[in-house]
Amino acid sequence: MDNVKEKNIYKKRGFGFYLSIYRKILIQDLKSKMSYRADFIISTFGMIMTNLSGFVTFMILFHNFPSINGWDYYHMLFLYGFSLIALTPVQCFFDNNWNLRFMVRSGDFIKYCFRPINVFFYFISEVFDVKGVGQFIFGLGTFIYAWYHIGIPVTVITIAQAVLFLITASLFMIAIMNASAATCFWIINSGYVMVIMFRFKDFAKYPASIFNGVFKFIFTFLIPIAFVAYYPSLVFVTPDSVPLLSWLSPLIGAFFFYLSYKFWMLGVRRYDFTGS
Fold this sequence. Notes:
mainly alpha; two-stranded antiparallel ribbon; about 70% helix; disordered N terminus
């Protein structure tokens, strides 16, 4: 009877409940991190410098080549800034996925299975990576700089589209990292899977049109890196010839995220049932 009541309570808890909990967890986590302000400043500065090196790479590249497959300097910068902003949520809010394999291997993950709240939310919400703030700042600056030079109109519609498609793009990378992290429930050395999948993010700053048919198919439908920046950005850089995949990316992104969540939770049920 108690178990039935607990499940009913769990089902009744909606978005507002979890948002309230997350806000409290986030505040406490930020307070603990800000107690080491030097570490926060150094981490943020380090992330900015890391992304600045990518900016310098673009400058050197386009000093020698006027365009890449029809994409000039400012359009490539737009793609680069777009990808940095889109990658920020997975850096800031889902960084605890990197610790999942260690928690599962040590057995400490079992503590997340005993609370009457969503296990995925409970685990992910414990860590907020402040280094992602530096990435967001640099990405936003690059994005605005390229937006201005391309001449994209600033309207309520274009700004709303930018927010929608940036969120959409984030869902794809979050889904990739959720799924790769969850492999630890079945694979002992799953760290290699996460590292490989995470490094694919470097391809997000390049247009998918530069890849041949096989790799373009892989990066579109199997490992959807092309949706992290390329397809959503086409809404802005080629407004007169936007492909159908660009318009469908919000639905596809939500679908990929849902699949990755279900896969993650499938691993949790296996862990809970077997105690492995």
